[in-house]
């Protein structure tokens, strides 16, 4: 089902005639004060900026995000004063990590709905890659981005909304990805073969010494493709699947993975390839 896409968060410093009460501290917000809010049940809940980071249920979706992602997730971000923008960026990067709702692997967030039970807020420039991952073409000021992102289903809702987990590619990086699709697919085939060979070897070993405990699993190394100086596409085996990981690597920690990125399962990678023409159509339309 198609719906108009609304961003999950909203920011404003526009004076209002009506009184706005902060959902955090319950006191009034001065009418011209910068306020940060979240859309819930078709209405907005507003907070003082400081109260947002301590009280808003969805605050962790904005923690640690960069300017581009803020613009993608927060309605009105491009319209606020530069000083307010940098304040938001500082707040987002310095927000406390205590109470962050994370579980399992470093790159996974707990979904509040079961997979596939909700609608995505799809517009003409957003493409479903299945299992709560979407690819959307967005324009921030004059810059076009291809954003591949995890979605989540908010409490009590059936419509999925974007999270901060994912990566926003500029056109140059997107073109590089597109040019390397065949090579990436060859890497997937190679990795799959290695994985199968290892399985066979393991089976043989298991027959030989049944009583021996299985050793630590060894997986083939990542095969890397470059999108930019810091951004890589990695192909590697994760469990029994071969995944495609598009990620930014941090400079400080000798190119360790940052959490700005997305790990695509085989079906999602297939969906992305099938949507290449649509994505390029959207890029042309918005440019
Ligand atoms: Zn407040």
From TrEMBL:
One GO cellular component, as annotated: nucleus
Source domain of life: Eukaryota
Any Gene Ontology biological process: positive regulation of transcription initiation by RNA polymerase II
Compartment annotation: Nucleus
Keywords: DNA-binding, Metal-binding, Nucleus, Transcription, Transcription regulation, Zinc, Zinc-finger
GO molecular function: DNA binding; transcription coactivator activity; zinc ion binding
The keyword Transmembrane is assigned to this record: no
Residue span(s) of domain PARP-type: 22-88
Keyword Nucleotide-binding: no
Pfam families: PC4 (PF02229)
Family of this protein: Belongs to the transcriptional coactivator PC4 family.
Alphabetized PANTHER family for the sequence: RNA POLYMERASE II TRANSCRIPTIONAL COACTIVATOR
Protein name: PARP-type domain-containing protein
Species per Swiss-Prot/TrEMBL record: Mytilus galloprovincialis (Mediterranean mussel)
Classification of source organism: Eukaryota, Metazoa, Spiralia, Lophotrochozoa, Mollusca
């Amino acid at each position: 089902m198609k719906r108009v896409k609304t961003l999950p968060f909203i920011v404003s410093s526009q004076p209002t005639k009506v009184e706005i009460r902060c959902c955090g501290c319950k006191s009034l917000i001065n009418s011209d004060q910068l306020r940060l809010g979240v859309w819930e049940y078709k209405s907005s809940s507003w907070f003082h900026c400081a109260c947002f980071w301590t009280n808003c249920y969805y605050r962790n979706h904005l923690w640690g995000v960069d300017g581009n992602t803020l613009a993608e997730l927060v309605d009105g971000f491009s319209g606020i004063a530069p000083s307010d923008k940098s304040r938001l960026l500082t707040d987002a990067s310095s927000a406390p990590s205590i109470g962050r709702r994370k579980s399992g692997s470093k790159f996974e967030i707990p979904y509040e709905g079961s997979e596939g039970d909700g609608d995505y807020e799809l517009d003409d420039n957003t493409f479903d890659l299945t299992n709560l991952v979407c690819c959307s073409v967005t324009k921030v000021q004059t810059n076009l981005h291809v954003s591949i992102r995890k979605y989540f289903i908010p409490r009590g809702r059936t419509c999925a909304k974007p999270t901060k987990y994912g990566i926003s590619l500029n056109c140059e990086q997107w073109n590089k990805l597109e040019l390397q699709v065949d090579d990436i697919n060859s890497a997937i085939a190679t990795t799959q073969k290695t994985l199968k060979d290892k399985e066979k070897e393991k089976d043989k070993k298991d027959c030989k010494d049944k009583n021996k405990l299985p050793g630590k699993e060894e997986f083939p190394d990542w095969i890397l493709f470059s999108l930019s100086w810091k951004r890589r596409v990695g192909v590697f085996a994760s469990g029994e699947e071969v995944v495609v990981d598009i990620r930014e690597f941090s400079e400080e920690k000798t190119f360790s993975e940052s959490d700005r990125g997305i790990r695509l399962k085989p079906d999602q990678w297939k969906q992305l390839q099938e949507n290449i023409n649509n994505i390029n159509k959207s890029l042309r339309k918005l440019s």
